[in-house]
Amino acid sequence: MAVFDSEADKYDQWYETPLGNFVNLLEKQAIYSLLNPSPGETVLDVGCGTGNYSIELAGRDCIVTGVDNSKNMIEIAKWKAASRNLKINFVFADVSLLPFDDNIFDSAICVAAVEFFGNRQKGIDEIFRVVKPGGKIVIGFINKNSGWGELYQSDYFKENTVFKYAGLLDIDEIRSIHPGELIEIKKTLFTPPDESEPSVEKEKIYAKSNKPGFIAALWQKK
């Protein structure tokens, strides 16, 4: 059974909380500012989960393929897309062996999923393999060295959640990924995980003292 199969039914509940909704907003702003997708663009969403990014990209008239190794997540993603009358190709597959030819996608995204790759380097290399030369790869990471990173690496989370399977990265490790193709890094989510009433104004204040909980990076394939 895939790591996230048992989480599928409750996965989207996080986004319905005030903090979860705010975190999602900040992360998406960072991802889309780097990806800047155009209508008709073919986009691969790696570790698509329940399809949140795939659905938004399809809503922007992109041609989207979502891939995940959790059958339960994929089934929920398919249902959500169908209920919105969106055509998205959801594929059950392991990221370390993507079932796609070389150089076929205009761009790819992978948000908070690299941390759970069984073979991180192989999975990342596979993403680069299937993107066209000149195409964009945007990956979003949970920053290991942040309040959020500390939370997810705490004993409780390591013992009771899917984060027992996670390996978080710091900024230097992110920069070491295909360094010759790395274009830009964006940092966000300075708001700590114990903030009960998050806001844009508070985020600006926290940014003066806290480390970013989320890092988005853009590569352009050579």
From TrEMBL:
It comes from the Bacteria. InterPro entries: Erg6_SMT_methyltransf, Methyltransf_11, SAM-dependent_MTases_sf. GO terms for biological process: methylation. Residues 44-139 form the Methyltransferase type domain. GO terms for molecular function: S-adenosylmethionine-dependent methyltransferase activity. Keywords: Methyltransferase, Transferase. It comes from Melioribacter roseus (strain DSM 23840 / JCM 17771 / VKM B-2668 / P3M-2). This is UbiE/COQ5 methyltransferase. CDD domains: AdoMet_MTases (cd02440). The lineage of its organism: Bacteria, Pseudomonadati, Ignavibacteriota, Ignavibacteria, Ignavibacteriales. Gene3D superfamilies: Vaccinia Virus protein VP39.
